[in-house]
Amino acid sequence: MAEQSYAKHAHRPRLTTIAGLFTILSMVLLVLFVIRYPSIGSIGVFLLSCGVFTLVWISRAYTVRLQDRIIRLEVHGRLLRLGRDRDFGRLSTGQIVALRFAPDAELPALFDRALADNLSPDQIKRAIVNWQPDLYRT
Predict the structure, then answer these.
(1) What is the pLDDT of residues 42-98, one digit of tens each?
(2) Which of 60, 85, 104, 112 is in Cβ range 3.0-4.6 Å of 80 for a Cys bridge?
(3) pTM (two decimals)
(4) 71 near 96, Cβ under 8 Å?
(5) CB atoms within 10 A of CB 61
C-alpha cells in the first residue's frame, strides 16, 4: 500500500484539471474569435464550449458528492460495528470524510472529540496518529 499522511493525502485529479484547462483556454480563444468575427456559427461554437465546461464541472461535482455518500456509509458502518453510531447524524459531511482516515483503534475517541469539541475536518485529520490510507479516491 502507498503511504499517506496528513501532509500527503490531498487528491488532485489530473485529467479533470487538464480537461478544465483545455476548456477554459478554448473559451478564451472563442471569445476572441466571436469578438473579431461575430456570426451565428462562432457564437454557437462558443456556447458549445460553455456546455463542455459545464459538463466537466458537473462531472467532478457529482463524482465528489457520490464519493462523500460512499464515505458516509463506510464510516457509519465502521462506527456501527464499533457500537458508536448513535450520534453519527450530529457530524457534518466534512467531519465524517475526515474521520475515514482514522483507524478503528482511534476512531471512537476521535469521533467523541469531534462531537464534543466540534472539530473541523482539518483538526480531525491532524489528530490522527496512525493514518489509514484511502487509495480508492476518484
Answers:
(1) 999 999 989 988 998 898 899 989 999 999 999 999 999 998 888 899 999 999 999
(2) 85
(3) 0.74
(4) yes
(5) 10
Question: Over the stretch 116-127, which tens digit does the pLDDT of each residue have?
Answer: 999 999 999 999
Cα 44 to Cα 87: distance, rounded to the nearest angstrom:
52
Angle at CA of residue 136, ends 56 and 14, nearest 5°: 35
Q: Length of the chain, please?
A: 138
Cell of 108: 471512537
Rounded distance between C-alpha atoms, residue 93 and residue 87, angstroms: 13
Q: Is 128 helix (H, G, I), strand (E, B) or coil?
A: coil
Write the CA distances from 61 to 45, 54, 91, 131, integer angstroms.
24, 10, 21, 26
> DSSP states of 40-80 as a string?
HHHHHHHHHHHHHHHHHHHHHHHHHHHHHHHHHHHHHHHHH
Q: Which amino acid is at 57?
A: W
Question: CA–CA separation, 80 vs 99, rounded Å?
Answer: 14
Burial 84-102 (b: 16+ CB within 10 A, else e): eeeebeebeeebbbbbbbb
Closest CA to 53 of 33, 25, 84, 81: 25
